Amino acid sequence: MDKPALKVLFFGTPDFAVETLKQIHRKGYEIVAVVTTPDKPAGRGRKLKKSAVKRYAEQHGLPLLQPEKLKDKQFIETIKSLQPDVGVVVAFRILPRQVYEIPRLGTFNLHASLLPDYRGAAPINHVIINGEKETGITTFFLNDKVDTGEILLQEKVPVDKKETAGSLHDKLMYRGAELVLETLQKIEAGEIEPQPQPDLTNLHPAPKLTRENTRIDWHQPGESIERFIRGLSPYPGAWSMMRLNSEKSMRCVLYLADFEPGEPHPDSGKIHWDGKNFRIAVRDGWIIPQLIKTEGKKTLPRKDFINGLKNIKIDKNIARCY
Fold this sequence. Notes:
This protein is of the alpha+beta class and 322 residues long. The chain has eight helices and 16 strands. A seven-stranded mixed sheet has the order 5-2-1-6-7-8-9, with helices on both faces. The relative contact order is 0.10.
């Protein structure tokens, strides 16, 4: 069987991009270069950490580029000299025009939603937070505006009832790699027909996750809070401040929780603790943490967390999450 003729220039950084790079490589495409971010200091020792994409490229002897600046003249000239046919972008920085226009047949991106809905940096998280029952993946040509280029291929993917950001990430990662291969094959065969994104109303944004927009609002309905926690699990985690007594207040992260409907509660965020049961009041019931991490501690399942509370003096008049 003949190898594909297209010469591919690949851009990517995290684990989500590795599966696509792996499939392109296994399929026999000539990868003229893999472009990823420079190594960055990480951890207590501030040792330089390689991106997941770089690790894969080095393990398989693929040409590697790590530009500090994407508009660097030497970087651009290097890419031009490689004469790529097509560029593939998966979870990478915004490319300038002078870079994405270099490949002869264009540069396309894999986005983890059904564009034009959920444009932005964190579509996987926001789909779960908003309680969607369906999402998808899209390949589209890059242009000057983020996530607005002509659509090449799309595929719908169901969102399971108890989906977390982690489980949906993996599901879309594998399906996305397959869609990229299909897109490359259709481009090579001249069968691709780019379509403008439809001009729809009531689109959902998918902004970058920050410290501010990942904090739990205990005044929200219980179902919304439970989805919020799943939508940020396992990364970056939905967080809250927790006060147990007049002296002890700490930051905690909830990775999994159950919502138990109940009578309306006048004091959202109040902690109920009777020595055996730990739950947090919301306006229409209770949030029951199942996987939780507090400052300076390991992530603990509910049973172990409750055992640890038995050594802490908890003031039931003060204890609350906020």
